[in-house]
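ok here's SGNH/GDSL hydrolase family protein, seq below lol
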Amino acid sequence: MLYPLTTLLLLPWLLWQGRRVRRDTPRLPEPDGPREGLSGSGAPLAVLMVGDSAAAGVGTRVQTRALSGQLVQALAQRFQVRWQLLARTGDSSADVCDRLAAQSPRPFDLALVSVGVNDVTGRTTLRQWHRHLQQLTGLLQQRFGVREVVFTAIPPMHQFPALPQPLRWYLGRRAGQLNQALAQFCRDTGGCSLLQVPFPFEPGLMASDGFHPGEAAYALWGQHGAELLADLHVKALSDAPSGALSGVTPAALAE
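and the structure came out like this:
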């Protein structure tokens, strides 16, 4: 009862702070660079990255220094990676579902998803959040043939420098609630995994706006993401039926 009551009492102050943050926080552009490509050598691996401004790489100037570039560079050391990035600043989980539904289907082995921050700021309810996670997973698995959907945990918004108190506390608490629901969803849903990156939130880790990741954060995210995706892919290859072509994935066969 304490959290809803405190929220109600602070609502006018929270709304005023939210408007001020939107007004005063610098609007960083999405970085330049390709959003799809082929890199590396070895067993084929097709990866789709979808989501919000963090997935799009806001906080860096070029995609090679953003999440997509860091992830692909790490994976390309072991695999021939065919990759595509579908992300846009401001997208919530519902927006990502709409974008995927409008996209022409193309097969991928794995998907890395970054959503949640805009659901926190947009006051998505827990019921809506769960429904959007179901829709998003279904779209990736059924329309794009994704074998494993990897959701990145919502970052600890209570540590975002751009957010003043008590707004920082409120959004951090809400992010924690959506994260708990996301973790439970991944435990209950086949073909879903949760990626939790141990961001230390040291000086310089965040972008200049105090809201998005900086290059160091994207490097850490890409490293941990690549490790999990590689493990999932290798396990899938090892679990393939006897007699299957070694190193060839379902997505590769569909091309």
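fwiw The chain is about 45% helix and 15% strand. kinda neat tbh
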